[in-house]
Structures are given as structure tokens and as C-alpha cells.
Amino acid sequence: MRSDLVSGGRLPDVELRDHAGNQRRLSDLAGGDPVCLNFYRGWWCPKEQAFFRRLVAFQDEVEVAYTRMVSISVDAPEVEAAFRAGLGARWTFLSDPDRAYQAQLGLLETTDTVHDPYVPTAFTLFPDLRIHRVYNGYWFWGRPTLEELRRDLREISREIRRDWEPPPRR
User: Which phi and psi (to 5°) does residue 149 adopt?
Assistant: First the structure.
């Protein structure tokens, strides 16, 4: 991974096609809210399927907490659409079949020479794509737990929401 992709660094504003084939920019998807972004191997990986089942269980909380989730792989949009639908996921999946950002970000998984996927990596991001925390998911236990994501997103929200504390009673 690039050495500047650490807490306090900034993730590039990637622009890719989504699961429906529409061109999307990460900053637009953030829309002023905290982001849970994950780069994943592909639909075929059983580790990804296990991780995504946890994320699907988490999506209701994410939606009501004014937070966004985005997932990126080298799978084609139609493959991502099928994977997303099969999971019951409602967040945006971005497709990088040309691996346009894989080398730029230093996220090529070098041990899989068949699929040439992204190395599984999760980021919690501020709305301006500043990195709060990075999780190296090459080994499954390196991926964030839902509790770690909750903690990160709470910390980001507390920092960006001026109205985090309720107003005093009049």
C-alpha cells in the first residue's frame, strides 16, 4: 500500500462505474458524511462473502446514522450487481476491471495471480476523504469488526457534526 495512505492522509478521489454502470466519484458518494470504504477481492472469495454478510447486518445502522458505505473490486459492474443483490446490500459497489487505481494505490494482491484482485483493505474516511483508520484485511482477522467500525464512525461523526451535543434547553 502507498505509504501516505495512513491515518491523517487523504485517499484519492477515485472515479469508477458503479454496479449499475453509472460513472461515480467517491467524494460525491460521501456527500458530506463519514464513509466506510472497502476494497475487496471479488464475489468468489469465501472470506469476502463472510465479511460482506457482517456488513449487510450493519447497513441499517449506517443508513440511519448519516454514513455511507462503498465497496470496490476488479469485478465488472454486472458481476458486482449480482453479488450485491444476492447479499441484499443497498450501498454502492464500484467496479475497477481495468485496475486503474490498483497500482496507483498500491493495493494489488500479489499472491493471487489468477484474479489479480485488490488486497482486502478497509478505510474509515471523513467526508473530505481524509483517512481516519486503515484495516489490512489480507488475513481475515485484519478486517474491522462491526464494533471497530462503530467506534471509528462515532469518532468521525463527533468531529464533523457541530450539533453532536444537543442544544441547551431554553
Answer: -65, -45
Interatomic CA distance for residues 124 and 68, integer angstroms:
10
Q: Comparing C-alpha atoms, which of 114, 111, 112, 78 is closest to residue 95?
A: 78
Which among 148, 33, 142, 20 has a CA at the least distance from the CA of 93?
20
pLDDT in tens, 65-88: 999 999 999 999 999 999 999 999
**d(C-alpha 87, C-alpha 34), whole Å:** 23
pLDDT band at 1 (very low <50, low <70, confident <90, very high): confident
**Pick from 82, 111, 100: nearest CA to 20:** 82
Q: What is the 3-state secondary structure (H, E, C) of 109-122?
A: CCCCCCCCCECCEE
Rounded to the nearest 5°, which phi and psi values hold at 133?
A: -150, 150
* Per-residue buried b or exposed e for 131-156, using 16+ beta carbons within 10 Å of the residue's own CB: bbbbbebeeeeebbeeeebbebbeeb
The identity of residue 9, as a single letter, is G
- In the numeric block, which cell numbers belong to residue 16? 469508477
Contact 11, 123 (CB under 8 A): yes
